[in-house]
UniProtKB/TrEMBL annotation:
One Pfam match: AMP-binding_C
Signal peptide: none
Gene: acs
Gene Ontology terms for molecular function: acetate-CoA ligase activity; AMP binding; ATP binding
Organism, as annotated: Brumimicrobium aurantiacum
Name of the protein: Acetate--CoA ligase
Length: 651
C-alpha cells in the first residue's frame, strides 16, 4: 500500500499518472513499479478509476498448480455502471457511439450516453421479459449495428453472459458455439448489408437451431427487410419486444469474478474453445490499456474498424472506450464500398483522432489508387493503430506516410482473445516506434522468451517462444466447461507461465517483434483459424481419405491456406472437387476459411509415428524448397518430391 504520510495531492498525481502515462521517463518508472509490486499497482489503479459497490478483500489470488487466477475477489460492481451510469452526470449529452451505416446515403446515428443508457436498459428488460437472468448464456449473432453493442451491454447489465458469434460464421459454426455453452436465447437479425450485398442471416440461424436444443427464444431485429420465416412460439421481433418495456433496469450486483462473456477462438482441435472473461479484471485492464495505447483525451473521436464479433471489438469498440467516457465509432460496412476511399471518407466526416485497423485492410487499401486517400482531409488523426497479425514493413511505411503523414505514431498492438487487452504496444508520443515492432510491454505485463527446452532467454538480440510470467487482470480465466484444456493449452508448455502460442524476437534495445504462430493456428486476414477444424471439414467429403492444411505467405491476407488432400477415389474431376471441398469448408466454418490452393497428393509427409510434418508442407508452399530440414526421419521421404512438384505447378 501507499505510504501513509503521502499527501492527497501527491497521491492524486501519482495515481493519475499510473493511469495515464505521458512520457518515456514516466513509463519506465511506472513499469518498474508495476513489476516490483504488481498487486499494489493494480490495487491503486482499480481503486482510483472505477466505481465499485463494494471494495475487494484481496487483489490477486493466483494458484499456479491449478492455473486459476482471481482478481479483486470480494468486490461488487456492475460494469455497465462504469461504462454508462457514472458518465451521465457530466457526459449525458455527449455522443457515446457514432454508428456509420454500410451505405453512406443512409443516416448515421449519434447515440449519446443518455440514449445509450435508455437503449441498454430497455434491451435488458427485453431479456428479462424473455426469462433471462444472471448467469444465463446469451448468444448474439448480429451485424455491426448499434443493437449489437446495446445487446452486449444489456447482458452485462443483468449479469447474463454474452457469447457473440461473428455474423460471418456458418450455421455449423454457430450451432457448435451455442451448444458448447448451452445458450438459452439467441439475438439475431434478419440479414445484413455487406457492401453491395444483402446477406440472409436468419436462414443461417434457422439451419443452426435445428441442432440447438438449449435455445428457447430467438429475438430478431429487422435490419434489411427480408421476407423471413418466423417460427411460432420461438421467434420474436425485437421492435415488438421493445414496445412492452420501459427504460429503467436496475443493474445486477456482480462479483468481481462473475463471468462477463465467452468468446470463441480457434484451437488445435475441432471443438470450439470458449474463452471466459470475468467482470472486474477485464474492466480494469480494458479501460487502462485503451486510455494509454490510444492516448485518448476528452472529446476525441476514436474509431476501431474491427467487428464486435472478435475480441478487438469487445475491448476496443465497446468496453475500453465506454469505460473511459469516449466517443467510439462503429462502422457497419467494408473498406471497399462504395469505393476504396470509404475509411478515409469516414475519418474526414467525423474528424477521427485515433484510428485502429488491421494490416490486411492496410495492405488491401495500399493496393489501390492513392487518389482514394488524397481526396480526403485526414488532418484530425493523432494516433494510428494496427492489430491482429504482424504488420510488414511495406504496409507500416504506407500507413505512416500516407495516412499518418509521418506525424501520427503507429501503435502496433500485440494481444489475443485470451489476454483480453493489449499487452505489447508502443504508447504514442512516449515510446519511439520502429516499423514491424510491437515494442514494449504495457505496465503490469511481464513478457519473456523461452527456448525449446523451456529455459528463459536472458539479454537482448534473441528470439524464442513468447510467454507471460505474471498474471494480469484481464487474462481469460478458463475455457468454458473445460478447465483442463485451458491448463493444457496455456500453462503446460512452460511451467508456471502463460504460453501465447506466438514466436517473437527481442532486438538489441529490448523491443519485441511478434514473428507469428508457432502452433497450428493460421492468421488469415487477421482472423485466427485452426487448421484442425478445416481438416475435419475437408475429410467429410466422401472422396477424401485424409488432408493437411497449412498457411503460406500472401501479399494481402498475410497468410492464405493450402490444403493437401489424399483421395479415396482418384477418378474424380479435380476442378469440381476443389469447389466441393471449399463449399464444405464454407458451410462448416465460413467463407473466411476457404483454401486458396488445393493439391491432390498420393501421400503426406509423415513421421514414423504417423505425425504429419506440416513444417515441410509450409516450407514448400512458401517456396522455400531448399530449406526443408531433415526429411530422413519421414516414413516415406519420396512424398516430399511429389509435394514439391504439385506446389511448383501453381507457383
Ligand atoms: C496475432 C486479436 C503480430 C498473434 C487481438 C496472436 C499479432 C493472435 C498482433 C491473436 C500484432 C495479434 N503483431 N501478431 N500486433 N496482434 N496478433 O485472438 O498471432 O484474434 O496470437 O486476438 O493474433 O488473435 P486474436
Amino acid at each position: 500500500m501507499l505510504e501513509s504520510n503521502i499527501t492527497e495531492k501527491s497521491l492524486k498525481e501519482l495515481t493519475e499518472s499510473y493511469y495515464s502515462i505521458d512520457s518515456l521517463a514516466n513509463y519506465i518508472d511506472i513499469y518498474r513499479i508495476s513489476k516490483e509490486d504488481p498487486v499494489d499497482f493494480w490495487n491503486t489503479i482499480a481503486e482510483r478509476n472505477f466505481s465499485w459497490r463494494k471494495k475487494w478483500d484481496n487483489v490477486l489470488n493466483w494458484n499456479k498448480e491449478e492455473a486459476t487466477v482471481k482478481w479483486f475477489e470480494g468486490a461488487k460492481l456492475n460494469i455497465t455502471e462504469n461504462c454508462i451510469d457514472r458518465h451521465l452526470a457530466t457526459k449525458g449529452n455527449q455522443t457515446a457511439i457514432i454508428w456509420e451505416p454500410n451505405d453512406p446515403s443512409e443516416e448515421a446515428q449519434h447515440i449519446t450516453y443518455n440514449e445509450l443508457s435508455s437503449r441498454v436498459n430497455k434491451m435488458a428488460n427485453v431479456l428479462k421479459n424473455n426469462g433471462i437472468k444472471k448467469g444465463d448464456r446469451v448468444c448474439v449473432y448480429l451485424p455491426m449495428i448499434p443493437e449489437l453493442a446495446v445487446t452486449v451491454l444489456a447482458c452485462a447489465r443483468i449479469g447474463a453472459i454474452h457469447s457473440v458469434v461473428f455474423a460471418g460464421f456458418s450455421a455449423t459454426a454457430l450451432a457448435s458455439r451455442i451448444n458448447d455453452s448451452e445458450c438459452k436465447i439467441l439475438i439475431a437479425a434478419d440479414g445484413s448489408y455487406r457492401g453491395a450485398k444483402k446477406l440472409n442471416l436468419k436462414s443461417i440461424v434457422d439451419e443452426a437451431l435445428e441442432e440447438c436444443p438449449s435455445i428457447e427464444t430467438v429475438i430478431v431485429f429487422n435490419r434489411v427487410n427480408l421476407d423471413i420465416d418466423m417460427k411460432a412460439g420461438r421467434d420474436r421481433w425485437l421492435d415488438k419486444e421493445l414496445s412492452y418495456v420501459d427504460d429503467v433496469c436496475e443493474a445486477e450486483e456482480m462479483d468481481a469474478e462473475d463471468e462477463l462473456f465467452i468468446l470463441y477462438t480457434s484451437g488445435s482441435t475441432g471443438k470450439p474453445k470458449g474463452m471466459v472473461h470475468t467482470t472486474a479484471g477485464y474492466m480494469v485492464y480494458s479501460a487502462f490499456s485503451f486510455k494509454n495505447v490510444f492516448q485518448y483525451k476528452d472529446n476525441d473521436i476514436y474509431w476501431c474498424t474491427a467487428d464486435i464479433g472478435w475480441i478487438t471489438g469487445h475491448s476496443y469498440i465497446v468496453y475500453g472506450p465506454l469505460l473511459n467516457g469516449a466517443t467510439t465509432v462503429m462502422f457497419e460496412g467494408v473498406p471497399s464500398y462504395p469505393d476504396y476511399g470509404r475509411f478515409w471518407e469516414i475519418i474526414e466526416k467525423y474528424k477521427v483522432n485515433q484510428f485502429y485497423t488491421a494490416p490486411t485492410a492496410i495492405r488491401a487499401l495500399a493496393n489501390h489508387d492513392i487518389a482514394f486517400v488524397n481526396k480526403y482531409d485526414l488532418s484530425s488523426l493523432k494516433v494510428l493503430g494496427s492489430v491482429g497479425e504482424p504488420i510488414n514493413e511495406e504496409a507500416w511505411n504506407w500507413y505512416n506516410d500516407n495516412i499518418g503523414k509521418k506525424k501520427s505514431p503507429i501503435v502496433d498492438t500485440w494481444w489475443q482473445t485470451e489476454t483480453g487487452g493489449i499487452m505489447i504496444s508502443p504508447i504514442p508520443f512516449v515510446t519511439p516506434t520502429k516499423p514491424t515492432f510491437a515494442t514494449l510491454p504495457l505496465p503490469g505485463i511481464q513478457p519473456t522468451l523461452l527456448d525449446s527446452d523451456g529455459n528463459e532467454i536472458e539479454g537482448n538480440g534473441c528470439s524464442g517462444r513468447l510467454c507471460i510470467k505474471y498474471p494480469w487482470p484481464s487474462i481469460a480465466r478458463t475455457v468454458y466447461g473445460d478447465h483442463q484444456r485451458y491448463k493444457d493449452t496455456y500453462f503446460s508448455a512452460f511451467e508456471g507461465m502463460y504460453f501465447t502460442g506466438d514466436g517473437a524476437l527481442r532486438d538489441e534495445v529490448g523491443y519485441y517483434r511478434i514473428t507469428g504462430r508457432v502452433d497450428d493456428v493460421v492468421i488469415v486476414s487477421g482472423h485466427n483459424l485452426g487448421t484442425a477444424p478445416i481438416e475435419n471439414a475437408i475429410n467429410e467429403h466422401p472422396a477424401v481419405a485424409e488432408s493437411a492444411v497449412i498457411g503460406f505467405p500472401h501479399d494481402i491476407k498475410g497468410n492464405a491456406l493450402a490444403g493437401f488432400v489424399i483421395l479415396k477415389d482418384e477418378s474424380r474431376d479435380h476442378d469440381n472437387l476443389q469447389k466441393e471441398i471449399n463449399a464444405i469448408i464454407s458451410s462448416q466454418i465460413g467463407p473466411i476459411a476457404k483454401l486458396d490452393r488445393i493439391h491432390f497428393v498420393s501421400g503426406l509427409p509423415k513421421t514414423r509415428s504417423g505425425k504429419i510434418m506440416r513444417r515441410i508442407l509450409r516450407k514448400v508452399s512458401s517456396n522455400e524448397m531448399e530449406n526443408l530440414g531433415d526429411t530422413s526421419t519421414l516414413l516415406d521421404p519420396t512424398i516430399v518430391d511429389e509435394v514439391i512438384t504439385e506446389v511448383k505447378a501453381v507457383l
